[in-house]
Amino acid sequence: MSNGDDPADASEEAEAADDGGDADESTETAAPTLPDDATEESLNEYLDEIADRLEAAETEADLDDVEALLDDAAAGIEEADLPEPDEDDEDADDPRGDLEDRVAELRDGVADARGPYGEDVADAVEAASGTVADTEWTEAGHDDVAAAVTSFVDEAADAIDDAAPDAIDEAEEDPEALLAEPADDEATDGAEPIPVDQLTAALDAVAAAVVEAGFDADDDADVIAALLAATDDLEAALDDAEEWDDLETHEQLRAQGYYDVLGHYKDFPVEWAALKEHEARGNVDMILLALDSLQSEFMERHCLEAFERMGKRGKTEASVEEILGRAEKRDRPAIRILGKMAAEEATDTLVEYVDEDSNPQLQKAVFKALGEIGAAEAVQPLANQLDPDGDTDELVRPHAARALGLIGDTRAVDPLADALEAHPSDDVRAAAGWALRQIGTREALEAVAEYADERSFVVSTEGEKARDALDDGAEPAPTA
Length: 480
Hints:
The chain contains 25 helices and no strands. The chain has helices at residues 7-18, 23-29, 40-56, 60-79, 95-113, 118-134, 139-163, 167-170, 175-180, 196-213, 221-240, 249-255, 270-281, 284-293, 297-310, 317-327, 332-341, 347-351, 360-373, 379-384, 397-407, 413-422, 426-439, 442-449, 457-471. Residues 1-43, 58-101, 461-480 are annotated as: Disordered.
């Protein structure tokens, strides 16, 4: 073997051996030489010799020799005068291509034969650390992971100490010490599970110590193999540890306490019975858990209805985020819930749907929700829906007027008064009268009271109520 020397030098040594050197020695050490007459046959014979040399390689230096010989072979193939394939014949022989394919296969063989290296160990440990950090473990799974990591760290630290005693000391962290430290520097009774961040920190420290040790693929082959075996055991233990995704839905719910609210008597199904109890207790997180976990239309409907009944009691950052996500898909039940929650966070999204003239049912839900939220930003868009010449469905306009009344913003007085005076629909006029009474300023009430004797019963009823409110001493309208 050339042990990394130039193949040409190896060839010269072979020639010298042929000229009288020791025959046995030349058989063991002489490298194959590129044929002077480079033909398909001679080049294949040359590659056969390189393949034999690859099979016999035992060290990285041996593989370096093979790599150099393959470089020599690639150059010889490129320079050789070989027949070119007939471009019009798909099945024509391609000697040069076949030889180049053999070189590529032998290069792959060299790559496969190299190592393993210390870097391979570090990469495997870092991958295991990522698995520990990124996986959602059950309580039992976490315990198994902690035990597996602890065992691995002990075994790896011993192996590193035996081969490179200073590696752990010179690395930034001692992996065993990291596992021994209580979380947040607080004393524990030994029964508390080791937090994930400590487990990953210990694994990262092992990887850093391996890199610091600088293990040689030849000289330290045994310790590298031992560390890789330990890493394989760790990966197998992580594969076996219980994840949340491994559990059936009811097991996940049970583990998270969803059924804990149930007594001895249970309605059917038990998930619904538990949901009703969580609603009564205001357990928003549990309702969200059921909504996320129970993939049935029945439970989805009942979870959403629970939120709608709870109204503001069901409003949390997490519940608004969940329901708003559904509302952004024009889901009407979700829009109704946002209104009941008085979720100001939904205003921008809902205002975008005010002009959805092609979807009257969506508009009705949106208008009411904006009114219940008290969304001042929606006053003008809603007022625009009162225009009798607009594209809004006639049955939707009363809902726009009522939403303005729920918002209670005095900017709506003029457009509502205009609708009350001139809109051709009595339903719209009555809704405008109702809305003005909800706003409740003297100006608003006076605008409605004028129609107490209106021929339309629904309009005159609003006028009479406004007149009574004025008689009872309504506050004067603010002056400009």
